[in-house]
Amino acid sequence: MVQVYCYAKCTTCKKALKWLDEKGVEYKEIDIKGEHPDEETLRKIYKKSDLPLRRFFNTSGMLYREMELSKKLPDMSEDEMFKILASDGMLVKRPLLVTDSKAVPGFKEELWSEELL
Hints:
This protein is an alpha+beta fold. It is built from six helices and four strands.
């Protein structure tokens, strides 16, 4: 089952969901703010990607900037990063596409096409 973690007010999330609908892809939408993934779930999602953990952070978000994570992440352990990501869904890059075999943070049509079509 395809899962998409989204935030209702995010224009990129809206664009991604519209794209999925247009392509006829069935998916489960999950509110990243209200039902954000816990640490265990994030670890499972992360293992499905070939990306550095830092790519899962919403670097343009207010909370990320308020916490000054750009300065702190380079010195953090993976465990510390997972704890912070799990603390608030607004820290997670969105939309976050999760399939049985892959996880893709952010919306890029070509990457989503490769995974879904």
